[in-house]
């Protein structure tokens, strides 16, 4: 049996402020290849060149990665604000439709950070553009130096920052074999209201939603707010998630055969 092919969504980016490109962080690609056992295949987050139906005929699973851009507020009936830019409206269009299509067709779907947010919006949920502005919430953004620059040490940036309480008996608790985990935190936007089929499976100590699954999905359809692609080769929590994603794709292949 061949390696599962994993579609990994691209993000719009401009190189040297001139050249428009689509890019994917290498950690995502390595997590898929080295832990899920799949062949990562980047696809463009641009609806004019990405045929979702053809894509899903080609891949065995989809990863919606984290990204710098926020989901555009008009996707959940909120007016946009300059301070919450940048946005990536083309990725929004692809990712939201793709989330629903994956669940409908029984194709394993793994949403990470922005990917969790996209899954929630795809099923009718809403987001808050800056979770730390809600009373009682912590700052979930990545660590920075006193001058405002991002901390240069990735082990600091991706260090575990807070606990997540998992739903007893839920999919995450069963998969991870525990009801409390500790995770990194590199996001500003977060879930406000869950979508109609979005089940909350993990919550941070300040009430921020950190783990979800899509109800009645026929296969793996999980989202995490933390960056699970960071060091899953050694991090046992992230490793189990990517391994389970890989197992779901293999099961899909066997069922099709």
Automatic annotation (TrEMBL):
Gene Ontology molecular function, alphabetical: hydrolase activity
PROSITE patterns (UniProt xref): GATASE_TYPE_1
Keyword Protein biosynthesis part of the UniProt annotation: no
Keywords carried by this UniProt record: Hydrolase
Listed CDD domains: GATase1_2
Lineage top rank: taxon: Bacteria
Matches recorded under Gene3D superfamilies: 3.40.50.880
InterPro entries, alphabetized: Class_I_gatase-like, Peptidase_C26, PuuD-like
UniProt name for this protein: Gamma-glutamyl-gamma-aminobutyrate hydrolase family protein
Organism for this UniProt entry: Bradyrhizobium campsiandrae
Record lineage: Bacteria, Pseudomonadati, Pseudomonadota, Alphaproteobacteria, Hyphomicrobiales
């Amino acid at each position: 049996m061949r390696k599962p092919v994993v579609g990994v969504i691209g993000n719009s980016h401009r190189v040297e402020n001139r050249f428009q490109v689509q890019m994917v962080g290498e950690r995502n690609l390595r997590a898929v290849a080295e832990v899920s056992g799949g062949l990562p295949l980047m696809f463009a987050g641009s609806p004019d060149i990405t045929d979702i139906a053809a894509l899903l005929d080609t891949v065995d699973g989809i990863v919606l990665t984290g990204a710098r851009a926020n989901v555009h507020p008009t996707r959940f009936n909120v007016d946009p604000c300059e301070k919450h830019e940048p946005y990536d409206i083309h990725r929004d269009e692809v990712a939201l439709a793709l989330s629903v299509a994956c669940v409908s067709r029984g194709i394993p779907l793994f949403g990470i950070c922005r990917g969790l947010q996209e899954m929630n919006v795809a099923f009718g949920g809403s987001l808050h553009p800056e979770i730390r502005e809600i009373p009682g919430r912590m700052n979930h953004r990545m660590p920075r130096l006193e001058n405002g620059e991002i901390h240069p040490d990735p082990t600091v940036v991706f260090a575990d920052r807070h606990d997540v309480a998992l739903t007893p008996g839920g999919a995450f608790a069963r998969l991870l074999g525990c009801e409390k985990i500790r995770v990194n935190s590199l996001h500003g936007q977060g879930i406000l209201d869950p979508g109609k089929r979005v089940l909350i499976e993990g919550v941070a100590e300040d009430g921020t939603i950190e783990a979800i699954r899509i109800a009645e999905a026929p296969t793996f359809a999980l989202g995490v707010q933390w960056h699970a692609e960071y060091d899953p080769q050694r991090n046992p929590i992230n490793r189990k998630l990517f391994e389970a994603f890989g197992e779901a794709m293999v099961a899909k292949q066997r069922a099709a055969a």
